[in-house]
Structures are given as structure tokens and as C-alpha cells.
């Protein structure tokens, strides 16, 4: 009889120990996950979205009434945009103005038929054409000595 009581006592102690271990373990898991949550909560506001590069000299042509309007200006120091992007198969209306640009008052997009325009007296000149093939074309003056810009045609 006394042996049975002893076993029961031991079993009770073991059970209490197990209970404490589970409670303590549960608390530790809860505490650590809570700590992680706090760390995450602190670190997220510290993250900043990736910076978007400033590219003021590039432009994607806005489309109005099925025509892509492109504005380009030449001065003695070059073009106001070094890259223009348009879509293929849609007419482009190129508005070109040259001010004190010398021979840069004539603009030509090399490789695109009909894409040449002469600005006189600082006035805007307009030419329309439709790019039919994707690619990157250069625009420059008639002698191709002006620092060229890229005329990008996408699908
Ligand atoms: Cu020239």
C-alpha cells in the first residue's frame, strides 16, 4: 500500500512539473512571438520606398484622339529631351521648336520615313508621321552633329 501511495505522489509531482513546463513553455513562445511582433512593428516604419529616379529629360508621348503628341525643343546647347518614347502604329505629331540652335533648327529622326522638320525664327514647326517598326532611333540635326537623342518606338 505504501508503495502505491508513493507512486501516486511521484506521478502527481511529475504531472505538476509537466503542467508548469507547458505553461512556462507556452509563455516563452508567446513572449518571443510578441517580441518579434514589436521588432517588426518598429522596423517597418523605418523602411522607405525605393527612390524613383528623376528623369526630366525623358518623355512618353501622351495620346490624344489617336495621335501621339511629342514636343521637342532645340537650343544652342542641345535638345530639351534626350529620350522620347512612342508606340508603334499610332501617328506621331512632332512639335519642334528651335531657338538659337543654328543648324539644329532642322531636326531629323534617322531611320524613320518622313520624320524631318525645320523650325524657322523660333517658331514651332509640326510634322506628322507613323512609326511602323519598334526600335531606338536617333534624332539630331541634318548633319547629325548635334548631340543625338533617342526616339524609342515600342510595341
Ligand atoms: Cu548640324
Task: Give structural attributes.
globular, 34% strand, binds copper (II) ion, 2 domains, Immunoglobulin-like, single chain, 155 residues, alpha/beta
CATH architecture annotation name of the largest domain? Sandwich
**How would a textbook summarize the main sheet?**
6 strands, mixed
* CATH level-1 class of the largest domain: Mainly Beta
User: Between the first and last Cα atoms, what is the distance in angstroms?
Assistant: 93 Å
Q: Give the overall pLDDT as a whole number.
A: 76
What is the topology, as strand order, of the major beta sheet? Answer: 1-5-11-10-7-8
Spell out the CATH superfamily of the largest domain.
Answer: Cupredoxins -  blue copper proteins
Helix-strand sequence? HEEEEEEEEEEE
The gross shape turns out to be: globular
Uncertain runs are 13-56
Bound molecules: copper (II) ion
Q: Bin the helical content.
A: 25-40%
Radius of gyration from CA coordinates: 36 Å
Strand content: 25-35%
**Total strand count, please?**
11
**Structural class, from secondary structure content?**
alpha/beta
- Give the tally of structural domains: 2
Query: Given the structure, what is the number of helices?
Result: 1
CATH topology call of the largest domain: Immunoglobulin-like
